Amino acid sequence: MSATPSYSYEELQRRRTRQASVLLTPDIYDWYEQMMASHDLYYDETRASWLLFRYEDVMRVLQDTRTFSSQRTTNPDGSVDPIASGGILGMDPPRHRQLRSLISMAFTPRAIAQLEPRIRAIVNDLLDHVGDEDGMDAINDLAFPLPIIVIAELLGVPASDREQFRQWSSDFVGTDYALRLATSKKIAAYFQALVEQRRRQPGEDLVSELIRAEIDGERLPAPDILGTCLLLLIAGHETTTGLIGNAIVCLDEHAEAKQELLAHPELLPSAIEEVLRYRAVVHTIPRIVAVDTMLCGQEIKAGNLLLPLFAAANLDSRQFPDPGTFDIRRDPNRHLGFGYGIHFCLGAPLARLETRIALSALLERFPNFHRRHAGQLELRPSSFIYGLKQLPIVFESVS
Ligand code: HEM
């Protein structure tokens, strides 16, 4: 196959839009398996992108940030728009390093561990509203509201505005690129007002901390504060919803694993890591090839889009023995569910904590949960998040 040319800014935007219009489907895992049998790298016309499948190759891309840039959204003049670029997720060093070190102060494992009692209270409250007889929709009654409440509280968003956030968050991760842009503007305007309010009246929340934060003696520019708020809201919500939902499905589909977990609740953290490997929520985050390069014996031109497939790499048998087996005791388990390298998920400790508390409460209160309908699962429409739209479960035992 001949290498594709590099693209102008406009062409890149057009291709990104095209890429975002391709949905993840429930049979995507069968497709990965088929593709991986014959390809390491594949040019996908529909997505107008190179797809990369193997663990080792994906790791190489994630570590070589000079060749494979995360800075995919630049203005036509070459400057970076911190809001459209998705905050640090869409930045390269050295700017990425500076900003990340500031935000990570709020996300230390210690700071996150302090949230445990509050998260437990939110989960209990959500489960208190579930009727024993009717069962529940594990997505809409638990997995969806939990992370939005937590992130809204972290950011200091008033409870009365949370409904609005739910809608924005859904609109943003969908596949309608125009809606996504329009929504990001609405969220930016919302945070703009919140930032101004916190400037006048600082609190203990993350927005106030970002306002106080300094890089090399200088205050953070307003667009960076907004970009960070938007990123935390989006990165922290639907992803965690997806993980909780995928975990429930994995346990439902693997009855022996669920029994083992009920007998040994201490295996829960390791079970969650296995869900992140076996049914990754974030399947890929694009990179832009910054300089002409060779990858898997193929020349790729600067400007091309590359999708390192975390979800496929997690099934690479060269890295994971029996990759198709859901093994809650898998060790080692160096999955790429949270990415790798300088962009490794900043919210991983929070996502793990929320998921652990939600699952342990569910298993404790309703150990006999089962999916209400066997068969095809319905995914939320998204091109990069693999999570369910709904997940009705019932609690009676099935004999
Ligand atoms: C980055 C996945 C939850 C904040 C990432 C990346 C992945 C990921 C794969 C790497 C992206 C890349 O390499 O380009 C997930 C999953 C989650 C989750 C699967 C839930 C199960 C969260 C939460 C937060 C968060 C709860 C915060 C509230 C971030 C941020 C980055 C990031 C700020 C960008 C880090 C950087 O660019 O340096 N996440 N995430 N994530 N995540 Fe998460």
Automatic annotation (TrEMBL):
Signal peptide: none annotated. This is Putative cytochrome P450 YjiB. It comes from Dictyobacter aurantiacus. Keywords: Heme, Iron, Metal-binding, Monooxygenase, Oxidoreductase. It comes from the Bacteria. InterPro entries: Cyt_P450 (IPR001128), Cyt_P450_B (IPR002397), Cyt_P450_CS (IPR017972), Cyt_P450_sf (IPR036396). One of its GO terms (molecular function) is oxidoreductase activity, acting on paired donors, with incorporation or reduction of molecular oxygen. Belongs to the cytochrome P450 family.
